[in-house]
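queue> holo job accepted (S-adenosylmethionine)
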Amino acid sequence: MITPPRGPFAVGDQVQLTDPKGRKHRLVLGPGKSFHTHRGALAHDDLIGKPEGVVVTSAGGTPYLAFRPLLADYALAMERGAAVVYPKDAAQIVGLADVFPGAHVVEAGAGSGALSCWLLRAVGETGRLISFERRPDFAEIAAANVRRYFGGPHPAWQLVVAELDPAGIKDADRVVLDMLAPWDYVAAAADMLRPGGVLCCYVATTTQLARTVTAAREQGNFAEPAAWETLQRGWHVDGLAVRPEHRMIGHTGFLVTARRLADGVVAPPRRRRPSTGAEAAAAAAAGADGATAPGAGTGRPAETAEVAGADRGE
Ligand SMILES: C[S@@+](CC[C@H](N)C(=O)[O-])C[C@H]1O[C@@H](n2cnc3c(N)ncnc32)[C@H](O)[C@@H]1O
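queue> job finished
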């Protein structure tokens, strides 16, 4: 069974060391090896056989706290081709697109494989994840990242190096799209999904958001889409000094979900009147190719640009 390693640190384990300033360092344990910091070396043998949560001290006297990385740590530290889905969004996708053990999920594009790791963990070995990635160089990075995270091939995963193609895929429980133009694949998603299945799209810009929601509405096989974003603000808690952190993980992307209707069913008309200019905005979005060029108008703050990337790798 594929579960993250537990118990004492063993040879081959990934370890995350945190120094007194909160800086994180990663290593893979090997007998007789040393980890070199500018504060002196640290012997891997000092960690092998010890429980997680121990403190090891470098030759220069600096203490390091040692844990195995969580998936959120791993996903941000691993090699990247395309920009990865940030953990706050991956958590939303797994939770609110309701990805469950045993689910049959289709994903595109795999990018660096970060979201693939989250989805595989959620579906487990009894589920199935088919991930499409059209760029062979990114697919190679995704494959290596997923293999390294699970310590070998995941039995539920099939990586297809090609444009997303619905041919032969039926009765999927979830379709998750993290790509430049998900609206081009709304009909394909409807073909792949079973009634009640969920389409989930992750997009970076408002123009992509508008176009995706409009496409899902107009396609005819989906109930009214939901759209949202999440902002993650840490808090500084120290005695009476309890306040929000100055920096936060602000805009990374928007999420859209929509449920697949049964065949032949027309969604009841929305009671809400379309807002003023809705048609004009939809028409503008439909013709706004330039606005969805990589990184266009994302306005991301520096700290999130590092993660989500002004260019999401397409
Ligand atoms: C932002 S990245 C995905 C990152 C990924 N979710 C992760 O967490 O590592 C978007 C990827 O979609 C791929 N892509 C775009 N359109 C595609 C399509 N039609 N079929 C397959 N892959 C596609 C791109 O090559 C790119 O690697």
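queue> The mean pLDDT is 90.
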